[in-house]
Amino acid sequence: LLAGIASEAITRREEVERQNRLDYFGDQLAAFNYFMRLPLIATFGEVNRKLQEMRTLVRDWNSYGAESPNETSLNRAAQTLTQLQDRLFVPTKIVPSSEGGVAICFIQGDRYADIEFLNTGENLAVTYSEAEEPNVWSIEDGMMELTIDRIQRHFIR
Amino acid sequence: MPPEHLLRNGRPEDQAFDADELLYRRYIREHLHNDKIVDAHFDFPRTSVNRGKYSQPEDVLFSENGQFERWGVLEFPVSGIPAILQDAQGERFVCFPAHAPLDSNYGHTEIACERERQRGEPAIPGPAARKKFRAMLSKQVRVRIPATD
Question: Distance between CA B137 and CA B26 in Å, rounded?
Fold first, then answer.
């Protein structure tokens, strides 16, 4: 009986130690991931700051009569930035659009893509490269994740 | 006062454009990345530019109060304007430079757009076709005077 109790105690202790080791490695992995993501989190912070700055733009900010981004385009761009951050897909820049709205741009080498949020509520995307003609599509409600997929694929071809 | 050569002074419209005539437009630094202009830089149609026949690149940076001191200038040839634009429904649009002189800026020009089947009437294509035009145009652009910080 005593041998059985001792064996069970040893098994329990081993289980606790195994769990502690797993927790330790889990914590280490989480910390590693956190620190790896820090520069990206900082980049997204900067992109979000630029988006917030656009709230101060006034009509004719481009000197050619452009409307400033409105709440519709600003909010939609902010939501999309969150989706991009979840994927760690960092945009190259975010800019006000001369059509009235906000554009999130991706540029790598000769490849270009953007997602443009117009003040009218229309959302558009484009991909192209030096050798390719622009491919433009409208983004319907609920289709942003697919649009981001498509843009990511444009850069890994 | 604008420089003398920019003043209209009663001069008539001149709708004759050579394919290699350069068109100029000012830009802000944010709209450029590694010499690539983002298509969000352009509005369309009635995109404002200055034509090289009657103005110099730096003329588009002229202002009484130095407002455009840090701005840059883009250039593209008339032949860089996509002449035909087709939307998803198959509607075809004709795009071309139209001299639209102002009293203080004789070289002022706009990129105009008309339906191919209804020439003479200004037309505004849908947002997707407009974006395609803007993206095509942005591929044709070069920096003539860089913007500064």
Answer: 15
